[in-house]
Amino acid sequence: MSVLIDTSVWVGHFRWRNETLVRLITSDQALTHSLVLLELACGTPPAPRSRTLHDIGLLRRAQQATPSEVMQFIETEQLYGRGCGSVDLTLLASALMTPGGSLWTLDHRLEKLARRFNVAFPKEMH
C-alpha cells in the first residue's frame, strides 16, 4: 500500500501526533507530492522548520500528474464546481496514477471524491 498524505493530515499531525501517519512513514508506505511540500512551506511546520520540510521531502513521491493531465481529468470527470481546488485535484489525479496508491485527506470534499474514485485511504485504517 502507498498512501499520498494530504497537507491537512500533516497539519493535524503537527498539532496532535497521529500514530497511523507515524506507522505509514516508518513502514515506507507514506508518499508525498511537491505541491504538499509547497503548501507546508507556506505554513508553519514544527521547528526546526527546514529539517521538518527536508524530512517530508525524503518520502517517496507519488506520480506527478501534469497540469494538462489534471485539466483533462477535471473536464472528463466534470470535477468543476465541487469545492476542490487545483492542488486537491492534482493530488487526486496523482493518487489515481500511482500504482496501488490511495489518498489520505481530512478535507471532506476531497475525501468524497477520493471515495468516488476508490482511492480514499480507508477510515478504519486511521
TrEMBL record:
User: Pfam family example for this protein?
Assistant: PIN
Matching Gene3D superfamilies: 5'-nuclease
* EC category: hydrolase
The alphabetized UniProt keywords are: Hydrolase
Say yes or no: keyword Transmembrane helix present. Answer: no
GO MF annotation, one: hydrolase activity
InterPro entries in the cross-refs? PIN-like_dom_sf, PIN_dom
Q: What is its EC number?
A: 3.1.-.-
Span of domain PIN: 3-115
Q: What protein am I looking at?
A: Ribonuclease VapC32
